[in-house]
Amino acid sequence: MYCSKCGTQKNKGDKYCSNCGTKYTKLNKQTKKTITIVTSIIAVIILTIGLFSYLNSPKTIAKNYFKAMTQQKNINHYLNIKGDKTFINKTTIKSLSKPYSNIKDFKIINVNRNKTQANVTIQYGTNQETITLKKQPFLSLKKWKIDIENNIVKDFSIIVPKNSKITYAGKKVQKKYLEKTDNSDIYTLNQVLKAPTKIEITLPNGYTIEDEITPNTYKTKYTTHLSLDMIKKEEQTKIEKTIKKELTNLYDSILKETPLENKHLEKKQNQLKDNLKNAYNTLTNIEFTKITLENVKLNELGYLEFRFKANYKYQIKYTDFFNIQQTKESTSYTYMNATYQTDNIIDMDNLVDYFSRY
Length: 358
Fold this sequence. Notes:
With 358 residues, the protein is α+β, with helices and mostly antiparallel strands.
């Protein structure tokens, strides 16, 4: 024990300081307890600050972030994303991290930092990558976050047929993003990630297109397009059956003089009837044996326009050079176009009206 006034060490049995004469007093239990609590609190505060500084260091944050990327989970926790986050979500961030999913080992090889920014270089295999971090406000402290500005595309435009509905990165695109409507609707998303992202477009006819796009600095807009490989095989088969059925009904309505069920094709029916009537050969029977879709496109109204190959066999009657009536059966094929809307054919072009006798 030491004198509280001059600091001289107490000798055993002394009641007064041998140097300054100050009387020694014993600390009561409550005082000792208070001192212990205060000391503990100070120690916890110092330990907490030290732990926060370690866990929040650019090196630790970058290491944990890169590990999260390889494991494809909890990535959002480390990111600094400003502005509209609607289309920068777990789905697109996971897509961004996919190339890192096979990395097993990596190490920090360099850290450069100043008061507001840090660059941490990570090595994995023969590759090196530099991660940029920036300090962000966190309560009364500053916390390091991963800066992904280089992975963001601003003002990304999506051009679709009028009155279409869009789902981007699993989120429905609301009307507030609609910038312009003319022949098409133009939606502008404030910001999206430079990552493979799924987009679904439901056309006015009810058909849904599924596609995957990767926005980048040079690709800041997406225009709705369609190809056969974007249509499921079972859907293609369904469309081929529908075309075959409508073609059969169309020709039967003329040859058998029966009403046409599909009122959309009445104009084509009349036109085809005139062409067959004026032909050199009289068609008596036709059977479409196979319909094969060749390609597809979208028209301005958002309807599907298919070009298809139609294989068929037919029977005709005609009068030969000797004025003798003949009958001929044969097979052939031709290419036609059909406009498709919600399980219905609403238009057809290039209907076959010539049938060879040779």
